[in-house]
């Protein structure tokens, strides 16, 4: 090959390399432009979502059922690999709630994530009788710390002369019954409670008794985290981060926003009746009707069996650690105050297409809870009769929200104090 041929060959190879590099560079540029376009598109949707939700009942950094009717925000919770979530330590929020006497309540937790102003000593001081109360939002309370029934119980016991007593509110919103047990295993054992009260809310606790999937007990009854399932935890962590930082995704998740393509029918898993009910009385749904009617005997039998098994294991663990377990079945508004809002109940029945038999069947959760506790050899402290009597004189549940009012918490706490004193479950006054 002479010099000219070598020059031509070199030039041809340079052009080929340039074309190859140029093609790869062009592909990269195209990919970057495509990703940039997608990012700009979603940023545009995010801006639209923020404008659309600017006046949509969003208060305290969260979606509210209606303006002035809110619960603790996501910022008041933190994720946990076993419990899914728990109350964040040292959280303080002013939560709008129209029917509370103040128009809001203060959600405050201590350093242990308990709904209490004071921190808790670990290990437990000598001579102190400690009561741990577990439950969902009915126990956690849509009230101030001084108003929820565990605090009322503590105050009443101290007024009765029992100075060395402490009642800890470990309720967590949206928990199911199985998570009360696992909260005790994760956090409660270290608190060394002498008495554990399970606030079993009959309005929705029996609807799902599925235990956490990321934990199991070994042969000694100790809790073991199944790290093979922790990918679900990290997936939830990523999801919640996105929900906390994107109004678009949060709005789609909680139903405030919906995407609809022109020419395609809207898809909604909710029936028209349920959509109407959520607009008129969301408390009816989430605090009572969501669990479904209890007309199927097989379902009732299965749930009673699962609850019995869970309570029996719970009792064994509490006894093993030197404490005593008792169940407090908390009835729903429809069970205690059916005459306070008969129109709302009739409206819910019509919108959900429920029969009279369906409506009557919800009371069976009380029977299931009592039977399961008896079968598990767990004592029951049943407040239903006392609450029904108290409801004749004042409203014990919020009307739209269906959580216990300050008066409801007071009635429940006073009943528990009287019962524990009468039964000798707390040390005698000195």
A few lines on this structure:
This protein is α/β, with parallel strands linked by helices. It has 15 helices and twelve strands.
Please give a structural write-up.
There is one protein chain. By secondary structure, the chain is of the alpha/beta class. The chain has a domain at 120-229 and 264-423: Rossmann fold. 47% of the residues lie in helices and 13% in strands. The strands form 5 sheets. It has a 4-stranded parallel β-sheet with strand order 8-7-9-12, sandwiched between helices. β10 and β11 form a beta hairpin. α9 crosses α13 (364-375). Mean pLDDT is 85; it is low at 55-61 and 261-268.
Attribute tags:
single chain; 430 residues; alpha/beta; Rossmann fold; four-stranded parallel β-sheet; two-stranded antiparallel sheet; 15 helices; 12 strands; 47% helix
Structural class: alpha/beta
* Uncertain stretches of 5 or more adjacent residues: 55-61, 261-268
| CATH evolutionary superfamily of the domain at 120-229 and 264-423 | SGNH hydrolase
CATH topology of the domain at 120-229 and 264-423: Rossmann fold
Strand content: 5-15%
Helix segment count? 15
Alpha carbon gap, first and last residue: 113 Å
Largest sheet: 4 strands, parallel
